[in-house]
């Protein structure tokens, strides 16, 4: 029973979002297994994982806030500070650096008025240099909200920013539409709700029976159909 004048616990999630959170928890045999989708759900609200959100997640799944922070601080896709609507990650590994990656970063820093690791004043873009994007065959490469863009010149990277600023639809090298950071976080959070059954039941069907069929042959990349693709 709440006493008159007692402090109300701050919440990051609305009633509707909290209902979604409880549905996510119900997909797992152990509630703590839902920690990642719940953190992505929190991130979809403010654009990053807030302290209030981590405390709320801890309460939902019965963990200490420090345990939730330990998970949130491990994964680079979970942000602990405000980020831009579009995270531009430019690869700085050997292949990309050798083929012009530093020029791409410098051009974007000049265009956006920030240095790598910073966010523009309007909150539209965050620029970062990434250790490796696993796209050496497309060097120099970059990602926008984790969608790949291959063989990018400095001029092309700056033009890409302009298109995003104007609100144009932009598709990645593989033909995927670039979405905002909050949209990506929400889709990641609720992905498990699209499949029937609990996570445990899905694991039993996959491990005990046939693996999900793929149309992509082992050792090959999916067909590339987006902007700049030879198959476009």
What would your notes on this structure say?
Helix 1 (15-26) packs antiparallel against helix 2 (35-46) and helix 3 (51-61) crosses helix 4. The chain is α+β, with helices and mostly antiparallel strands. Residues 1-8 and 202-222 have low confidence and may be disordered. Among the domains are: 15-74, Arc Repressor Mutant, subunit A (Orthogonal Bundle); 86-180, Glutaredoxin. The protein is elongated. Strand 3 (142-144) and strand 4 form a beta hairpin. It has a four-stranded mixed β-sheet with strand order 2-1-3-4, with helices on one face. The protein is built from nine helices and four strands.
List the helices and strands and how they pair.
Layout: H1 15-26, H2 35-46, H3 51-61, H4 65-72, E1 86-91, H5 94-98, H6 101-112, E2 125-130, E3 142-144, E4 147-149, H7 154-165, H8 181-190, H9 199-208
Parallel strand pairs: 1-2
Antiparallel strand pairs: 1-3, 3-4
Helix pairs in contact: 1-2, 2-3, 2-8, 3-4, 6-7
The first-level CATH class name of the domain at 86-180: Alpha Beta
Radius of gyration, whole Å: 20 Å
Going by CATH, the architecture of the domain at 86-180 would be 3-Layer(aba) Sandwich
Summarize the main sheet: 4 strands, mixed
Mean pLDDT: 85
The CATH homologous superfamily name of the domain at 86-180 equals Glutaredoxin
Low-confidence stretches: 1-8, 202-222
Q: Return the string of H and E elements.
A: HHHHEHHEEEHHH
Helix content: 25-40%
Shape: elongated
């Amino acid at each position: 029973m709440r006493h008159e004048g007692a402090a109300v616990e701050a919440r990051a999630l609305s009633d509707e979002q909290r209902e979604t959170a409880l549905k996510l928890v119900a997909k797992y045999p152990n509630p703590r297994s839902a920690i990642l989708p719940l953190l992505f759900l929190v991130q979809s609200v403010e654009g990053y994982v807030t302290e209030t959100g981590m405390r709320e997640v801890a309460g939902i799944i019965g963990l200490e806030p420090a345990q939730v922070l330990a998970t949130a601080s491990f994964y680079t896709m979970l942000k602990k500070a405000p980020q831009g609507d579009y995270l531009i990650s430019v690869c700085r590994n050997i292949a990309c650096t050798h083929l012009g990656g530093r020029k791409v970063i410098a051009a974007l820093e000049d265009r956006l008025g920030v240095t790598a690791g910073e966010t523009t004043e309007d909150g539209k873009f965050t620029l970062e240099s990434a250790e490796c994007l696993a796209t050496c065959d497309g060097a120099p490469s970059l990602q926008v909200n984790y969608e790949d863009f291959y063989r990018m010149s400095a001029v092309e990277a700056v033009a890409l920013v302009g298109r995003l600023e104007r609100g144009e639809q932009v598709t990645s090298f593989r033909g995927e539409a670039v979405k905002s950071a909050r949209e990506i976080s929400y889709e990641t959070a609720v992905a498990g709700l699209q499949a029937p059954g609990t996570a445990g039941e899905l694991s039993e069907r996959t491990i005990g029976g046939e693996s999900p069929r793929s149309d992509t042959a082992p050792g090959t990349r999916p067909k590339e159909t987006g902007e700049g693709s030879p198959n476009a």
